[in-house]
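Quick one:
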Amino acid sequence: MERRRDALSREVLKEFHADALSPHRARGKIAHISHRASVHLAQQGDAPSVDYAPFGNAVLPLLLIRRYVVALLPQRAALLVLLITALVLPVSAFAAFNFFSINENAAVMYDAPSLKAGKLYVASLHLPVEAVVKVEGWVKVRDSKGNLAWVEEKVLSEKRYVIVTVPLAEAYQAPNTNSPIAFKAQQDVVMEWLEPAVNGWVKVRHRDGQMGYVRTTQVWGS
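Output:
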């Protein structure tokens, strides 16, 4: 019995560690773990009545998982419960509105959600980022190059911007290439996002005040 318990412990840890940086994959694993939890506790004659909270397409009985990991992994139960609540539950907050921008002149990006973690780089004001997951005052974000990093939630703004990803983007006065060109913007120039993209065009404002429509294939963050 003890050998089987140790094997289950290692398996649970392996599953969570493997998906710690991918909350979307972790949700499926947690649904599977929660089912195993109910089976395990039922076998032990310890299956409590709990409220099942809907989570996307899965059901997440947190109490069952909590009791399961406490039973199997007393020395690491706190870690697993933290992973469950921190990496998975907050994802839904960003389901419909993923893009944010940096609202400080120099925001430090970290490799973990802690001020003691390693510093990766400094993000400039208005840089657009895509939120991936939220953890206790921290947000894991992705930039236009696909880099992942953690940033303090307080430095993020809901005001949206886009960044030019091609050598030279052309902004038109109307959303079609037959209209006059309003202005051009070089790669890595950040522009204010004004309206949702329609038919492959997004309305933006340059920092000098000029407005125009740019193709979504030439910018990131729309």
